[in-house]
Specification:
With 280 residues, the chain is α/β, with parallel strands linked by helices. It folds into two domains: 3-140 and 250-258, Rossmann fold (3-Layer(aba) Sandwich); 141-246, no CATH class. It is built from ten helices and ten strands. The strands form three sheets. The protein has a six-stranded mixed β-sheet with strand order 3-2-1-4-5-6, with helices on both faces. A two-stranded antiparallel ribbon has the order 7-8. Helix 1 (8-17) crosses helix 2 (25-42) and helix 6 (141-154) packs parallel to helix 8. The longest helix is centred in the C-terminal third of the chain and has 19 residues, at 228-246. The two termini are 36 Å apart.
Length: 280
Amino acid sequence: MTTLLIDADLVAFRCAASVEPHGEEEVALLRADKLMRDLLHNTNSENYLAFLTGANNFRKKINPEYKANRKDKEPPRWLQACRGFLVSEWNAIITDGCEADDLLGVYQTENTRIATLDKDLRMIPGNHFNWLHNEYFYVSELEGLKHFYKQMLIGDRSDNILGVTGLGQVKASKYIDPLTNEQEMLDIVWSLYNEDAQRFVMNAQCLWIMQKEGETWLERKTDLILPAPLKLEVEVLSASTTSLMAVISMEPTTSPKMTSGIPVNGEWTESMEPEVVDLT
Protein backbone atom coordinates (compact mmCIF):
# COMPACT_ATOMS: atom_id res chain seq x y z
CA MET A 1 0.00 0.00 0.00
CA THR A 2 1.43 3.36 -1.06
CA THR A 3 1.56 6.27 1.39
CA LEU A 4 0.93 9.71 -0.10
CA LEU A 5 3.41 12.40 1.03
CA ILE A 6 1.68 15.77 0.67
CA ASP A 7 3.38 19.14 0.22
CA ALA A 8 1.08 20.96 2.63
CA ASP A 9 3.01 24.24 2.16
CA LEU A 10 1.71 24.34 -1.39
CA VAL A 11 -1.80 23.27 -0.40
CA ALA A 12 -2.01 26.09 2.15
CA PHE A 13 -0.53 28.74 -0.13
CA ARG A 14 -2.58 27.94 -3.22
CA CYS A 15 -5.87 27.73 -1.33
CA ALA A 16 -5.19 30.96 0.56
CA ALA A 17 -4.12 32.75 -2.63
CA SER A 18 -7.17 31.49 -4.51
CA VAL A 19 -9.48 33.82 -2.58
CA GLU A 20 -7.31 36.95 -2.82
CA PRO A 21 -7.82 39.82 -2.47
CA HIS A 22 -11.24 39.98 -0.81
CA GLY A 23 -12.36 36.36 -0.36
CA GLU A 24 -13.50 34.92 2.96
CA GLU A 25 -11.46 32.74 5.28
CA GLU A 26 -14.13 30.04 5.25
CA VAL A 27 -13.82 29.66 1.48
CA ALA A 28 -10.04 29.26 1.70
CA LEU A 29 -10.41 26.57 4.38
CA LEU A 30 -13.07 24.73 2.40
CA ARG A 31 -10.80 24.72 -0.63
CA ALA A 32 -7.90 23.38 1.45
CA ASP A 33 -10.14 20.61 2.76
CA LYS A 34 -11.39 19.77 -0.72
CA LEU A 35 -7.88 19.70 -2.19
CA MET A 36 -6.68 17.32 0.53
CA ARG A 37 -9.65 15.02 -0.04
CA ASP A 38 -9.16 15.19 -3.81
CA LEU A 39 -5.50 14.23 -3.43
CA LEU A 40 -6.42 11.11 -1.49
CA HIS A 41 -9.30 10.25 -3.81
CA ASN A 42 -7.46 10.85 -7.08
CA THR A 43 -4.46 8.77 -5.99
CA ASN A 44 -6.64 6.12 -4.35
CA SER A 45 -4.68 6.65 -1.11
CA GLU A 46 -5.76 5.78 2.42
CA ASN A 47 -2.37 6.47 4.02
CA TYR A 48 -0.75 9.89 3.98
CA LEU A 49 1.64 12.28 5.68
CA ALA A 50 1.40 16.05 5.19
CA PHE A 51 4.29 18.43 5.89
CA LEU A 52 4.50 22.17 6.60
CA THR A 53 7.67 24.26 6.91
CA GLY A 54 8.24 25.66 10.41
CA ALA A 55 9.81 28.92 11.52
CA ASN A 56 13.45 27.76 11.62
CA ASN A 57 15.49 26.80 8.56
CA PHE A 58 19.15 25.76 8.59
CA ARG A 59 19.62 27.16 5.07
CA LYS A 60 19.17 30.72 6.35
CA LYS A 61 22.16 30.16 8.65
CA ILE A 62 24.24 28.88 5.74
CA ASN A 63 23.13 31.77 3.52
CA PRO A 64 21.51 34.81 5.23
CA GLU A 65 20.19 35.92 1.83
CA TYR A 66 18.26 32.68 1.31
CA LYS A 67 14.65 33.67 0.49
CA ALA A 68 15.44 37.22 1.63
CA ASN A 69 13.75 38.46 -1.56
CA ARG A 70 10.39 37.36 -0.10
CA LYS A 71 10.50 39.67 2.94
CA ASP A 72 8.77 42.54 1.17
CA LYS A 73 6.09 40.35 -0.41
CA GLU A 74 2.82 40.21 1.49
CA PRO A 75 1.65 36.59 1.92
CA PRO A 76 -1.96 35.65 1.18
CA ARG A 77 -4.23 36.96 3.93
CA TRP A 78 -5.54 33.54 4.99
CA LEU A 79 -2.26 31.62 4.71
CA GLN A 80 -1.83 31.13 8.46
CA ALA A 81 -5.48 30.14 8.78
CA CYS A 82 -5.01 27.46 6.10
CA ARG A 83 -1.85 26.22 7.79
CA GLY A 84 -3.64 26.01 11.13
CA PHE A 85 -6.51 24.14 9.50
CA LEU A 86 -4.14 21.59 7.95
CA VAL A 87 -2.55 21.01 11.35
CA SER A 88 -5.73 20.71 13.39
CA GLU A 89 -7.89 18.92 10.83
CA TRP A 90 -5.40 17.04 8.68
CA ASN A 91 -2.61 16.21 11.12
CA ALA A 92 0.03 18.14 9.14
CA ILE A 93 3.53 17.89 10.60
CA ILE A 94 5.46 21.14 11.07
CA THR A 95 9.21 20.89 10.54
CA ASP A 96 11.76 22.10 13.06
CA GLY A 97 15.00 23.46 11.58
CA CYS A 98 14.46 22.34 7.99
CA GLU A 99 11.80 22.62 5.27
CA ALA A 100 8.79 20.54 4.37
CA ASP A 101 10.69 19.56 1.20
CA ASP A 102 13.32 17.87 3.37
CA LEU A 103 10.79 15.71 5.18
CA LEU A 104 9.20 14.81 1.85
CA GLY A 105 12.65 13.68 0.73
CA VAL A 106 13.51 11.85 3.95
CA TYR A 107 10.20 9.97 4.10
CA GLN A 108 10.20 9.02 0.40
CA THR A 109 10.64 5.25 -0.04
CA GLU A 110 9.63 2.64 -2.60
CA ASN A 111 6.23 2.56 -0.86
CA THR A 112 5.46 6.29 -0.98
CA ARG A 113 4.45 8.92 -3.54
CA ILE A 114 5.17 12.65 -3.27
CA ALA A 115 2.23 14.91 -4.16
CA THR A 116 3.36 18.41 -5.12
CA LEU A 117 3.67 20.93 -7.93
CA ASP A 118 7.12 22.07 -6.78
CA LYS A 119 9.77 21.38 -9.44
CA ASP A 120 12.49 21.25 -6.77
CA LEU A 121 11.13 17.90 -5.55
CA ARG A 122 12.06 16.35 -8.90
CA MET A 123 15.52 15.72 -7.45
CA ILE A 124 13.98 13.14 -5.08
CA PRO A 125 14.03 9.60 -6.53
CA GLY A 126 10.82 7.59 -6.46
CA ASN A 127 7.13 8.01 -7.27
CA HIS A 128 5.55 11.43 -7.74
CA PHE A 129 2.13 12.92 -8.44
CA ASN A 130 1.46 16.33 -10.01
CA TRP A 131 -2.10 17.13 -8.97
CA LEU A 132 -2.54 20.04 -11.39
CA HIS A 133 -2.05 17.77 -14.42
CA ASN A 134 -3.17 14.58 -12.66
CA GLU A 135 0.21 13.19 -13.70
CA TYR A 136 2.04 10.22 -12.21
CA PHE A 137 5.76 9.93 -12.87
CA TYR A 138 8.86 8.22 -11.54
CA VAL A 139 12.24 9.86 -10.88
CA SER A 140 15.32 7.63 -11.03
CA GLU A 141 18.38 8.37 -8.92
CA LEU A 142 20.27 9.55 -12.01
CA GLU A 143 17.39 11.81 -13.08
CA GLY A 144 17.24 13.29 -9.58
CA LEU A 145 20.95 14.09 -9.61
CA LYS A 146 20.66 15.67 -13.05
CA HIS A 147 17.85 17.89 -11.82
CA PHE A 148 19.95 19.03 -8.84
CA TYR A 149 23.03 19.89 -10.90
CA LYS A 150 20.90 21.73 -13.45
CA GLN A 151 19.54 23.77 -10.54
CA MET A 152 23.12 24.49 -9.52
CA LEU A 153 23.64 26.02 -12.95
CA ILE A 154 20.27 27.78 -13.26
CA GLY A 155 19.86 28.87 -9.65
CA ASP A 156 16.48 29.50 -8.07
CA ARG A 157 15.34 33.10 -8.16
CA SER A 158 12.29 32.38 -6.02
CA ASP A 159 14.70 31.38 -3.21
CA ASN A 160 17.25 34.10 -4.04
CA ILE A 161 19.88 31.60 -5.22
CA LEU A 162 21.96 32.80 -8.16
CA GLY A 163 23.40 30.21 -10.51
CA VAL A 164 25.73 30.77 -13.46
CA THR A 165 25.09 34.01 -15.35
CA GLY A 166 23.57 33.42 -18.77
CA LEU A 167 22.56 29.81 -18.15
CA GLY A 168 18.90 28.87 -18.29
CA GLN A 169 17.06 25.57 -18.55
CA VAL A 170 18.01 24.90 -22.18
CA LYS A 171 21.75 25.46 -21.81
CA ALA A 172 21.87 23.68 -18.45
CA SER A 173 20.19 20.66 -20.01
CA LYS A 174 22.74 20.61 -22.83
CA TYR A 175 25.53 20.43 -20.28
CA ILE A 176 23.96 17.90 -17.89
CA ASP A 177 21.59 15.61 -19.81
CA PRO A 178 24.31 13.67 -21.73
CA LEU A 179 26.22 12.82 -18.52
CA THR A 180 26.00 9.37 -16.96
CA ASN A 181 27.21 9.83 -13.38
CA GLU A 182 27.44 12.39 -10.59
CA GLN A 183 31.20 12.83 -10.84
CA GLU A 184 30.83 14.09 -14.40
CA MET A 185 28.07 16.45 -13.30
CA LEU A 186 30.10 17.86 -10.43
CA ASP A 187 33.15 18.38 -12.64
CA ILE A 188 31.28 20.32 -15.34
CA VAL A 189 29.33 22.46 -12.86
CA TRP A 190 32.50 23.19 -10.87
CA SER A 191 34.23 24.41 -14.02
CA LEU A 192 31.30 26.72 -14.83
CA TYR A 193 31.41 28.21 -11.32
CA ASN A 194 34.92 29.45 -12.16
CA GLU A 195 36.24 27.54 -9.15
CA ASP A 196 34.34 29.71 -6.67
CA ALA A 197 34.29 27.08 -3.92
CA GLN A 198 32.46 29.17 -1.33
CA ARG A 199 29.52 29.98 -3.59
CA PHE A 200 29.43 26.46 -5.02
CA VAL A 201 29.10 24.85 -1.57
CA MET A 202 26.67 27.48 -0.29
CA ASN A 203 24.37 26.95 -3.28
CA ALA A 204 24.67 23.17 -3.05
CA GLN A 205 23.74 23.23 0.63
CA CYS A 206 20.70 25.41 -0.05
CA LEU A 207 19.48 23.58 -3.16
CA TRP A 208 20.02 20.00 -1.99
CA ILE A 209 16.88 18.44 -0.48
CA MET A 210 17.68 15.93 2.24
CA GLN A 211 16.99 12.28 1.46
CA LYS A 212 18.30 10.93 4.74
CA GLU A 213 17.78 12.54 8.12
CA GLY A 214 20.28 15.32 8.75
CA GLU A 215 22.33 14.63 5.59
CA THR A 216 23.05 17.67 3.44
CA TRP A 217 24.99 17.82 0.17
CA LEU A 218 28.25 17.83 2.15
CA GLU A 219 27.77 14.16 2.96
CA ARG A 220 28.20 13.33 -0.74
CA LYS A 221 31.93 14.06 -0.40
CA THR A 222 32.52 10.39 0.39
CA ASP A 223 31.19 9.38 -3.04
CA LEU A 224 32.95 12.04 -5.11
CA ILE A 225 36.45 13.16 -6.02
CA LEU A 226 36.52 16.85 -5.15
CA PRO A 227 38.92 19.39 -6.67
CA ALA A 228 41.36 20.68 -4.03
CA PRO A 229 39.72 24.13 -3.43
CA LEU A 230 36.28 22.53 -3.19
CA LYS A 231 37.54 19.79 -0.88
CA LEU A 232 39.06 22.39 1.44
CA GLU A 233 35.81 24.39 1.58
CA VAL A 234 33.83 21.22 2.32
CA GLU A 235 36.20 20.24 5.12
CA VAL A 236 36.03 23.70 6.65
CA LEU A 237 32.23 23.65 6.71
CA SER A 238 31.70 20.00 7.69
CA ALA A 239 32.13 20.46 11.44
CA SER A 240 29.86 23.50 11.68
CA THR A 241 27.24 21.87 9.49
CA THR A 242 27.27 18.70 11.59
CA SER A 243 26.64 20.84 14.65
CA LEU A 244 23.86 22.68 12.82
CA MET A 245 22.18 19.43 11.78
CA ALA A 246 22.32 18.07 15.33
CA VAL A 247 19.63 20.49 16.49
CA ILE A 248 17.23 19.68 13.64
CA SER A 249 14.29 17.51 14.61
CA MET A 250 12.52 15.20 12.20
CA GLU A 251 9.76 14.60 14.72
CA PRO A 252 6.33 16.31 14.64
CA THR A 253 6.27 19.63 16.50
CA THR A 254 2.53 19.39 17.08
CA SER A 255 0.19 16.72 18.39
CA PRO A 256 -3.05 17.51 16.56
CA LYS A 257 -6.24 15.50 16.65
CA MET A 258 -8.46 14.65 13.73
CA THR A 259 -12.12 14.78 12.87
CA SER A 260 -14.02 11.61 12.06
CA GLY A 261 -13.74 10.08 8.62
CA ILE A 262 -10.25 11.32 7.76
CA PRO A 263 -7.40 8.79 7.76
CA VAL A 264 -4.52 9.53 10.15
CA ASN A 265 -1.39 8.06 8.57
CA GLY A 266 -3.15 4.85 7.67
CA GLU A 267 -5.56 4.51 10.60
CA TRP A 268 -9.18 5.58 10.82
CA THR A 269 -10.03 7.59 13.92
CA GLU A 270 -13.20 8.01 15.89
CA SER A 271 -14.76 11.44 16.13
CA MET A 272 -12.61 13.86 18.14
CA GLU A 273 -12.79 17.55 18.89
CA PRO A 274 -10.13 19.29 16.77
CA GLU A 275 -7.24 20.92 18.63
CA VAL A 276 -6.62 24.56 17.74
CA VAL A 277 -2.93 25.19 17.07
CA ASP A 278 -1.51 28.71 17.28
CA LEU A 279 1.09 29.20 14.53
CA THR A 280 1.86 32.84 15.26
